[in-house]
Amino acid sequence: MDRAGIDNILQQLQAASELASGVKKQPKSDEVASVDFSEKLKAAVDQVNKAQSGADRMTEQFVSDQANVDLHEVMISLQKANVSFQSMVQVRNKLVTAYQEIMNMQV
Q1: Is the dihedral of CA 55, 58, 63, 69 positive or negative?
Q2: What range does the domain containing 33 cover?
Q3: Model pTM?
Q4: For a Cys staple, 81 with which of 2, 10, 18, 51, CB 3.0–4.6 Å?
């Protein structure tokens, strides 16, 4: 998952939180960009899955000695997959927190 995608999602959550708390006024309709949140989230999850699959594939190639894969390349791919997964977990935690805040709002 790329950092720009995570930052974009976090900015949207922050804007929604500010809007819900009354700190920020709602922008005019011509200022709002059309973004499908579910598509962005699915793309981010797919990207994390792709990184993990690539790391697993490199690990298998290294262990079976099928290709000329160096240990440092395997370790780097595993770390990239781990960082992307941990980033996705943090985004999930932020989403859960935002959902809980919205559900606790008094109408």
Answers
A1: negative
A2: 3-103
A3: 0.61
A4: 51
Say whether 63 sits in a helix, a strand or coil: helix
DSSP letters of 12-33? HHHHHHHHHHTSSPPPPGGG--
Evaluate whether 37 touches 12 at the Cβ level (below 8 Å).
yes
Burial 3-17 (b: 16+ CB within 10 A, else e): eebbeebeeebeeeb
Q: Which conformational region is residue 69 in: left (phi greater than 0), alpha (psi within -120 to 50 degrees), or beta? A: beta
Q: Which two tokens stand for residue 2?
A: 């790329």
| pLDDT per 10-residue tile (average), the chain, 107 residues | 70 74 57 70 89 93 84 92 92 91 87
Q: How many domains does the chain have?
A: 1
Cα-flanking dihedrals φ and ψ of residue 11, to 5°? Answer: -65, -40
